[in-house]
What does this fold into?
Amino acid sequence: MPKVGMEPIRRRQLILATMQAIDEAGLADATVARIARHAGVSAGIISHYFGGKDGLMEATMRQILTDLRRAVSERRAEIASNDVRSHLHAVIDGNFDRSQVSQSVSKTWLAFWASSMHRTPLERLQKVNDRRLVSNLSAIFRRVMPLVEARDAAAGLAALIDGLWLRGALDPEGLDVERARRLAYEYVEYQLAQHAADVSTPAADAQASDMTHPVPAEHA
It folds into this structure.
């Protein structure tokens, strides 16, 4: 992990250089020397701040996960709590945000998933991220369906998001974000259709707001 007091600009510079090196040569050949060359610094700087390549890889994944959480939370921030559909769409859209689907980030994600099976710090990050996604989706689905069904729906949607992302990342032409979102939306519609009477729609929310408030008062 980077030492306390490290300049944020330098930290970001080294993380971007790590992704560039992985994009260029793959994880195995993304050596400290190659990363340092991309960042325009000495290899000793990386060892000083991160303790080596493993520490820098962990910091890189933490930054990507932070970007993912921000992409989702910013989308959900202004959505009414009872608008289940929009909250689910926000989670989907956040996972297919630009910060998660660029070529360099996609290759880093793939390297991270493979490495997490062998490196304990990365394994912990993977488990936390997976649990967060399923937990968030389950909590949203729980607003309109029983707990067991909500957990199943959440597990299914999480698997679909990961699967669509993975197939897109491995496709030479890259991920078709609009198609991936559409397919995930269709899954949401299928699940919500089973509990249609309890699902709030934006139009219904707006109508109710107009009736109760004469003066009119985004994807975690």
Residues 8-212 form a domain with the Tetracycline Repressor; domain 2 fold (CATH 1.10.357.10).
